[in-house]
Design a protein that fits this description.
By secondary structure, the protein is mainly β. Helices cover 0% and strands 56% of the residues. InterPro entries: Cupin_2, GPI/OXD, RmlC-like_jellyroll, RmlC_Cupin_sf.
Length: 107
């Protein structure tokens, strides 16, 4: 197990959703931690995690998150919780890149 990582040395990995790339920081049994870069105006469509909770912390930029049909606007240092089984999506509503930290944990 790596006890130290220089995040700047990790490469951004292009995701399956256009405009989203990530750096996998740590993967433990039942938990994953990553940085995600969101391109301007990119949208991660509505989806549900049937067996994990997810937490998103905005580090740079702004996003809009829809959680169970309610829209929230976020800025740096804001945190969102996406519980098991709840529909959610995110969009970068600005013309600037956004960086978020995402932690997911099995329920």
């Amino acid at each position: 197990m790596d006890y130290y990582k220089n995040v700047d040395e990790l490469d951004w990995q292009v995701g399956n959703i256009v405009g989203f790339s990530s750096k996998k920081l740590l993967s433990l049994t039942g938990s994953n931690f990553k940085l995600v870069k969101v391109a301007p105006f990119a949208t991660y469509p509505v989806h549900v995690h049937p067996n994990k909770n997810e937490v998103l912390l905005i580090l740079e930029g702004t996003i809009s998150a829809t959680i169970d049909d309610k829209i929230y606007k976020g800025k740096p240092s804001d945190i969102f919780m996406f519980p098991v089984g709840i529909q959610h999506s995110i969009i970068n509503t600005s013309n600037k890149e956004c960086v978020v930290f995402i932690a997911s944990m099995d329920n």
